[in-house]
Amino acid sequence: MGRPVGVTILAILDFLGAVFTVLAGLGFILGGGMMAAILAHNSQLSSQLPAAVAGIIGGLGVGVGVLMFIFAAIYALVGWGMWGLKNWARIITIAFVGLWGILCALNVLLSLMHFNIFAIIWAGFWLAIYGGILWYLFQPNVVAAFAGRRTMAATA
């Protein structure tokens, strides 16, 4: 049984997510360093801002950047698992998409409290996307594609 097209698309999206997360991590590291340098330079000129704050901001940039690299590795690992029809990757994808769906539903509720129509529509759009992905990953042919790979390997 071949890989379903939707699984291929999800794997490619995971790989793209890994690339963009690495770029975001680099942005945090470089941006934090740049902000720290600017703050350190300004604190030397005016002495209103201690240089320690600049160090803290630089350290936060590095910390968030490293965290982004860890998320990028998770994205890449799950993408590799989806590409190879590993059932653990399908389960992790279901868990992550479910988590993002819950957060998106909370965003819809918060947007309703403030009645921001654009935010309601945007969160509703993403909630529908996440619901569609969950629905797709539970389809019998998709479940069979992930299970079929495991049973074929066990019989070989």
Concise overview:
The protein is mainly alpha-helical and 156 residues long. It is built from 5 helices and no strands.
How would you sum up this structure, described in words?
The chain has 156 residues and is mainly α. It is 90% helix and 0% strand. It contains 5 helices and no strands. Mean pLDDT is 87; it is low at 150-156.
- Distinct helical segment count: 5
H/E topology pattern: HHHHH
Summarize the main sheet. none
Quantity of strands, as a count = 0
Average pLDDT metric: 87
Low-confidence stretches: 150-156
Helical proportion? over 70%
Alpha carbon gyration radius: 21 Å
The SS-based structural class is: mainly alpha
State the shape. Answer: flat
Strand content: under 5%
Distance between the termini: 15 Å
